[in-house]
Amino acid sequence: MRHLVLLGGGYGNMRVLLRLLPNHLPDDVTITLVDKVPYHCLKTEYYALAAGTASDHEVRVSFPEHEKLNIIYDEITSINADQKEVSLKTNGTLSYDDLVIGLGCEDKYHGVPGAAEHTYSIQSIQKSRATYEKLNNMAAGSKVGIIGAGLSGIELASELRESRPDLDIKLFDRGPRILKDFPQRLSRYIEKWFTDHGVEVVSDANITRVEPDRIYNHEDVYEMDAVVWTAGIQPSLVVREMNVEKDRSDRVILTPHHNVPGNEHVYVVGDCASLPYAPSAQLAEEQAEQIVDVLQKRWKNEPLPETMPEMKLKGVLGSLGKKQGFGFVADRAITGRVARFLKSGVLWMYKYHNG
Questions:
Q1: Which range of residues forms the domain containing residue 212?
Q2: How many percent of the chain have pLDDT more than 70?
Q3: What is the pTM of this model?
């Protein structure tokens, strides 16, 4: 019996399960999924959980059930590709024949003193819960700084404004304008929304230090009651400690078939993989589709194509509270209720197909 082990129950490995179960798994293959929590977490919605506009239950989806799927709830401590073993915190070691690593990412603090110790996070469901507790227990008029104005920072700032209109919110953006790599129309729309709703955007920011009650931006000091960090990610520590070739962002370099060079039994999906696109749930799912195709061919001893099809991403959608949104789809900028409706629809479809 061949043993496929999936590390992490994120978007990539959920797509692997969706493709293989219930009817496309060979009779001689079993699957073990390892994750710390007993459900799939909708990481793209953690901003709403942290802001208090979505319940904990709304950002979770149950793992599938199948007689050939075994689920272990544990923490992965290391991966030994030479021995084909995974070490677990409480369940010893787990052997595999094929391995798909989808362990996601964690905050990257870029060496900023105090950032790790004195900021809150939305990179895991546990940390998002802690952020929710902090932000929603604060007194009226408290000052909140959100460092990083990418998609997560924008959505958190807008959702927090709707949840807590009494707070003083500042969003620190390293660039000259929000989403500087997207059309100016989107930047102007988002910036106007923040202006109209009383969120201050601090452009060209460079946070040099974080203390328990203040942050330092260039020469300016901002008194803060809470700071949330959304200014960068890196692969999980287990992946960073693997003895494999990585790019300058510590993501694992892969062959065109998504396995580690020289090891056709170890695949990496999602945020830990070095790919020519920015990490996203959509990218992890597209990559997982190709990994399943490769696995099925290798299980059948069929030849692999020299190159894999180009992964075509559909675009980006973001929310500005519950009624407005923005997006860049098919090389076209969209704003307003239509963008928000599209994002809600994508989330509903995902839950429907995976729930």
A1: 109-231
A2: 100
A3: 0.96
